[in-house]
TrEMBL record, chains A, B:
Domain HTH hxlR-type: 24-122
Species: Micromonospora reichwaldensis
Keywords per UniProt: DNA-binding, Transcription, Transcription regulation
Pfam families, per the entry: HxlR
Protein name: Helix-turn-helix domain-containing protein
Amino acid sequence: MATLSAAQLREHQRDEYNAFLAQCPGHQLLATLSDKWVTLVLAALADGPLRYSDLSRTIPGASQKMLTQTLRKLERDGLLTRTVTPSVPVRVDYEITALGRTLLPIQQAIKNWAETHIEQVHRARAAYDRGDAG
Amino acid sequence: MATLSAAQLREHQRDEYNAFLAQCPGHQLLATLSDKWVTLVLAALADGPLRYSDLSRTIPGASQKMLTQTLRKLERDGLLTRTVTPSVPVRVDYEITALGRTLLPIQQAIKNWAETHIEQVHRARAAYDRGDAG
DNA sequence: CAGGATCCTAGTCGATACTG
DNA sequence: CAGTATCGACTAGGATCCTG
């Protein structure tokens, strides 16, 4: 017990590194951005506020659970606001915040890169899959 | 069998939508970029080629499996090259490609946003968790 | 040194049913 | 209408052992 085994040591380093990564702002943002539904919700709200059911119709791929979960996360991060109108039935509007809007150019940049270079990537994949070494 | 149940219909729409998303270049790129290790590998190679063991030391958080898997994926996408030198023992160098380099500005943009706005996000989270409605 | 193959766990996602 | 709660399927990721 004087020293740690090599495996334990590596595990320790890994944990430390991962803890460090978890704190890295870049990766926090990436974790948010990489969420499939986040981008779609943000994009959907770019044109103006929407109600829950509108969002659910705009993004048919998302289950109720995922949609709600995504909305909560974004609200928590201050990227959108949730406004409840206590009528009968209830009405809830979601609106993107100024902070959320600053994210849109980044999404756009990603989209642009993708549209510009996706062909190259696809060709590279095809070559790789063909077993093309030279 | 004349009509589909509501559940089946929704499921169908979901599938279609997800198939559409899978084809969307932006989401393909996002799927790549969002991979924790991809960013790190790309960043590590930005300064010059590295060997497998170098990478593994630079990124202690990645397991062998994840590292290899990530490298293969990036090679397949044409974002880096893998060069084997058949000496004893074998030597393998990984180098970022021109295409891969075009991705770096985007990573940088993300990093910049994160560093600029992460504070706001953290404050928003704290307020949310405090149950701060107004 | 660089990785392939295998097993296994933990978290994610979706379907379903119920509530104010 | 706008959710919440729960359960099961799936799979990404990590540990481990083994090879050229």
